[in-house]
Specification:
Chain A is mostly beta strands and 213 residues long. Chain A has helices at residues 19-22, 29-33, 57-62, 95-98, and strands at 36-38, 66-75, 83-87, 91-92, 109-112, 119-121, 128-140, 146-158, 168-170. Chain A is globular, with a radius of gyration of 24 Å. By secondary structure, chain B is an alpha/beta fold. In chain B, helix 3 crosses helix 14 (456-479), helix 12 (420-431) runs parallel beside helix 14 and helix 13 packs antiparallel against helix 14 (456-479). Chain B is built from 17 helices and 28 strands. The chains are: A mainly beta (213), B alpha/beta (643).
Chain lengths: 213, 643
């Protein structure tokens, strides 16, 4: 596991060395070479047929093997703290607005990171190259989204420089992360509840009675 | 004596205890349909819930029982007369925490007027709870003229007045103080202003924003075809009969639903589905066939969202194996089945819904070529042109012109997506085969979606696409005069307005956008207001769409409902990129009032929206009125007729 910022093995740390000093600056070259490059164009046969999508021969070959792929984190707020969405182009997905009726490409990669404390993936804008093991097949994720390709991620790197990137941050520091709404924010005032602070209908000429139901 | 006094005191305490127990009575905490009488003890109009004569809706009450007690019987009374439910169409269900939900399904009333609804619940110890609400049965004037045989609703999602103005300036032009030509929408003779609040907020989302047109009633945000209840179950809420079901049942009309969004999105689903979760895609799409095709005469369904129709093991499927998760499948309780004559539903992630539609007689078109291959004899049409939302007008047109797919679009995967006007033509040709007429909802969905994303060029383009669909509807109406056309929105999106025109050429903008000079380069030297806005000039190509959106001295748009965004006034090369992550080279950050959650996105506003109408019954759509009024005006034309 060579995710920066805590992903490095504790056993490998020399006595007296700090964590920062211990972190590799880049994904080791020998590790890079062991990962087969894959592009988002090589996921499904395109254009799509009249019904479902078919995996390409190449990606079927790569199922279960180590791959690397370049793209961008989707900016959104997933409830799954161990995963993020990854696409070919920079993309925003307003989950609260759209639900799962969206414009996310079916080629989207569901990236699974090792869980670390109270951290979760936080959006970064860099073009990234990810390294990990590819897994194909439909799977219903925690969010309800059905993923069709997943990456058990070993390393996140800056696609331009090759430097390792840390995408996990403490959830408490992610101000933009979605806060779940109450399931029924709009229940009308209950008859056994205290009178509402302001009865919107009380100022009407024909309704000058007290607010209390 | 002391002892005697003490005994009396104990007896008195015991009496108090019994009295206290007697006051711990059950209570009614919710009564559906919603009313101001129940919520605010206000019996005066406007009445929150209104229905057509014979339109069906559920009666529902939530009763809080005393601890450890149960609710043994519930009686609903309308004007003092007990409602007798159909066999199996009622239930008293424990919903936890000593709460009970009582329902009578598919009630209807034929007599116009305001009705008092009373619920009387009896607890296991014989204590009772009662509550009172009201609703109105609307009056339809019969034999008021010729009936509207066909009703066409065109909904520009999020399309406020400024969205229309922007589309007119770009596609028709303005000079010397006048529009060069009107939009097709502008030629509709009747105009009204519509208020859009939902049941639980001044700002609606698209689910209640469309539910109001389909049912004549208010819903909570996120909910469609139902009133809110107190259960987590997405599928058991009290229902309201949709226009399509009502007109199929009473007039044998057909229903069509077409959209540029995923077909399970809020606006299209609000015309056929019944759920408290607008995101429950698997179940909503199953309902289109199981309920709408069976009971609403759904004959046309087109848009994106193919993922919900594919077995879950198929590449690209979005079908889930749960009735509670996001994207949920549906299972309805037995009282709904009995009351509404619908199947139970099932969690069936491997259902091949396209095949099931085909078995039910639907012609299936996966793309424009499929639409164009229709023989003309088809009476049922399913079109699914994208995995999720269809790509937007600007990118579809660009691909037709140059075979170049916009970055971030799905056009490489789904290259042959029809335009909304092409879908409209096919839908009208199918639906007009019914001698009894039809009702259709045509949605230009991405006016809203791209306004959320503050992607000016893309939402303007989609508003133009919408206008072209309206033009096809007007042509149809001219040949079929007993057709009512209503063009409106569900809400305004993004607080959009036209703030002026650019002071510079496109090439100057390109230079400034790359300069990193921020406001010094991209605000004062660029934003021309008042006289300096002049008249931005765009041209149309042979396909009828703008040759380019990147003209010199272009129209400039501001957003009042905005989040933070970088702005360089240029067309964004990448589709659906985060407004805070694009256009950064210019370094002109426009901060917004709303914070954005997860992503930076503009929001819906509570502004009133425009409505244009033409054809049979259109004259009623004037003035300022509530969105639910539009339903009753349309139904007056369909049921009672209009001059």
């Amino acid at each position: 596991m060579t995710l920066a910022g805590g992903g490095a093995s504790e056993e490998a740390k020399p006595a007296g060395a700090t964590q920062v000093e211990q972190e590799p600056k880049a994904f080791p070259e020998e590790s890079r070479r062991s990962h087969e490059p894959l592009s988002f164009d090589e996921v499904f046969v395109t254009p799509a047929g009249p019904k479902g999508l078919e995996y390409t021969a190449k990606i079927k070959e790569l199922n279960g093997r180590k791959i690397c792929i370049t793209g961008f984190m989707v900016r959104h707020a997933d409830i799954d703290t161990s995963a993020f969405l990854f696409c070919a182009t920079p993309r925003a997905y307003n989950e609260r607005e759209e639900g799962l009726a969206d414009s996310i490409p079916p080629q989207m990669l569901y990236v699974i990171l090792p869980v670390r404390g109270h951290d979760a993936p936080a959006w970064r804008r860099e073009k990234m190259t990810l390294y990990g093991t590819l897994e194909l097949g439909s799977h219903q994720e925690l969010s309800g989204r059905v993923s069709h390709l997943r990456l058990r991620c070993e390393a996140v790197t800056d696609a331009r420089t090759g430097a390792l990137l840390e995408v996990r941050k403490p959830i408490a520091f992610q101000s933009g992360r979605a806060v779940p709404l109450p399931s029924d924010v709009g229940a009308l005032p209950r008859s056994d509840a205290p009178a509402p602070f302001f009865n919107p209908r009380r100022n009407r000429d024909n309704n000058l009675t007290p607010d209390t139901p | 004596m002391k002892l005697k006094h003490a005994t009396h005191f104990i007896a008195a305490l015991s009496g108090l205890s019994a009295l206290s127990s007697a006051f711990a009575a059950p209570s009614v905490t919710r009564l559906n349909p919603p009313s101001a009488l129940f919520s605010y003890n206000d019996s005066t109009p406007p009445y929150i819930s209104r229905f057509l004569p014979a339109q069906r809706f559920d009666l529902q009450a939530t009763i809080q029982a005393d601890a450890g007690k149960t609710i043994t019987s519930v009686v609903f009374k309308v004007n003092g007369v007990a409602v007798v439910p159909a066999s199996g169409a009622s239930a008293i269900t424990s919903i936890g925490s000593d709460k009970f939900s009582a329902t009578v399904r598919a009630y209807s009333n034929n007599t116009p007027g305001v009705k008092t609804l009373t619920v009387e619940a009896t607890q296991s110890d014989s204590l009772q709870a009662t509550a009172t609400g009201n609703f109105e049965i609307a009056s339809i004037t019969l034999n008021a003229g010729r009936k509207a045989k066909n009703i066409i609703w065109v909904i520009g999602d999020g399309t406020g007045i400024a969205h229309r103005t922007a589309a007119r300036i770009v596609s028709k032009g303005a000079a010397l103080g006048k529009a060069v030509d009107p939009l097709a929408i502008d030629t509709l003779p009747v105009t009204g202003i519509v208020t859009t609040h939902s049941l639980n907020s001044i700002v609606t989302d698209s689910a209640p924003g469309a539910h109001c047109y389909s049912t004549g009633n208010k819903a909570n945000n996120g909910q469609e075809g139902v009133f809110p209840d107190d259960t987590a179950d997405k599928w058991d809420n009290p229902r309201v009969e949709h226009m399509g079901n009502y007109l199929a049942r009473t007039q044998d009309k057909w229903l069509g639903i077409i959209t540029t969004a995923d077909v399970e999105d809020a606006t299209p689903a609000a015309f056929a589905a019944s759920t408290q979760d607008r995101g429950a895609g698997t179940g909503i799409c199953d309902m289109y066939l199981d309920e709408a095709a069976a009971n609403h005469n759904l004959h046309v369904l087109m848009g994106g969202g193919r993922k919900w129709f594919l077995p879950s093991t198929t590449g690209g499927s979005g079908r889930v194996n749960s009735s509670t998760a996001s994207g949920a499948d549906y299972v309805v309780p037995s009282d709904i089945q009995a009351g509404w004559s619908v199947p139970a539903g099932a969690v069936d992630p491997n259902r091949d819904l396209i095949a099931d539609f085909q078995t039910a007689g639907f012609y299936y078109a996966p793309n424009l070529a499929g639409l164009n291959a229709m023989t003309g004899s088809e009476t049922k049409l399913l079109g699914l042109f994208n995995s999720g939302h269809m790509d937007v007008s600007m990118d579809k047109i660009a691909y037709r012109r140059t075979s170049t797919a916009a970055a971030g679009s799905l056009i490489s995967t789904y290259p042959d997506q029809p335009m909304l006007e092409e879908m409209t033509d096919k839908a009208l040709s199918v639906l007009s085969k019914n001698a009894n007429g039809f009702v259709i909802m045509i949605e230009a969905a991405s006016v809203d979606k791209q306004a959320h994303n503050m992607d000016t060029e893309r939402w303007v383009h989609d508003a133009i696409e919408m206008d072209k669909a309206v033009a096809r509807c007007i042509a149809f109406q001219a040949a079929n005069p007993d057709t009512l056309i209503i063009v409106t929105a569900d809400h305004e999106c993004a607080g959009i307005n036209i703030i002026g025109g650019s002071l510079v050429t496109n090439s100057s903008l390109v230079t400034r956008a790359a300069s990193g000079g921020g406001a010094a380069q991209l605000r004062a030297p660029v934003v021309g207001t008042y006289d300096n806005a002049k008249f931005p000039a765009y041209t149309n190509a042979a396909d009828g769409y703008p040759t380019t959106m990147d003209v010199d001295y272009r129209m400039l748009i501001g957003y009042a409902g905005n989040s933070d965004r970088y702005e360089d006034w240029l067309t964004n090369p990448t589709y659906n990129q985060d407004p805070i992550a694009r256009d950064t080279a210019g370094n002109f950050l426009v901060t917004g009032q709303q914070p954005g959650t997860g992503v930076q996105s503009a929001v819906h506003t509570a502004s009133d929206i425009p409505l244009s109408a033409g054809g049979r019954g259109a004259a009623a759509f004037t003035g300022v009125f509530d969105n639910t009024d539009a339903f009753f005006k349309a139904m007056q034309a369909a049921i009672g007729g209009a001059k």
